[in-house]
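S1.2 Input.
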Amino acid sequence: MKLSLVVPCYNEAESVNLFLDAVIADFDGCGYDYEVIFVNDGSRDTTLFQLKKLYAAKKCPTKVLSFSRNFGKEAAIYAGMREAVGEYVSLIDADLQQRPAIVRNMVQILESKPEIDVVAAYQDRRGEGKVLSFFKKSFYSLINKLSTVKLQPDASDFRTFRRCVAEDLLNMAEYHRFSKGLFAWVGYETEFIPYTAAERVAGTTKWSFRKLFNYAIDGIIGFSTAPLRLATYLGGFSALAAFLYLLWVVFEKLAFGIDIPGYATIIVLILALGALQLICIGIIGEYVGRTFEQSKQRPICLVKEKLGCDE
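S1.3 Output.
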């Protein structure tokens, strides 16, 4: 098998048939074998029913994994890679914003350039609003300053890589997975190519601003300890400021006989220091919580049903 396409699906009942038809059309005459691995990430619509129909139709080599509940796209990517047998592994969404024809181009690059291990696509033009675009740019700028690994701005999970890269990614069984960071951490020679995202063929995006924000937090916590160091700096700065203020109060009292500030000053200081302490505790709690969840050694996902994976 030359290529395995891993396709995470969450409430994509209206898209999966169109996606598979597009794959078959775009890979017609490619000259090599490929398989499509659909991962149903606990969909609440008829996605699983549609995937079972596609598997039964046998239009092309197809595998179907179905989770016991929604574990998230990162878990779906991990499960799909685990079942992939191709020499190359490609990650692609089912909504056809990422066209299968681009994957064929990625394979050609890998075939013609043995020194390249990964071909990743980034959006040359984004159709999102200015506010969301601003926050995304700010995130990439921030994480590249905090982390020792550098992320390519606007590069998504849409990429194709060699088997050795997939095996190294699978060896990192992190519970809180941030694929963009993992791709950067494993290294390997990567070529970035631009693409223009098409319109969704059906449905709506599953990424709300809240989910994107939480995903960004996972990325920063997972690939940088700078927030912990920031808490240390904040504590040191607060201690120094408190000591200097103490010297100033004593100086005012001895030199000018000014009364020590009273109730209002004390309340403001208590509230400010209390807020600072809570911020630092919250930062530490994020790391402790992830360490706690990882220490349980629970599986990244639970696959309830498999089709085609034992053949």
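S1.4 Remarks. The CA atoms of residues 92 and 158 lie 5 Å apart.
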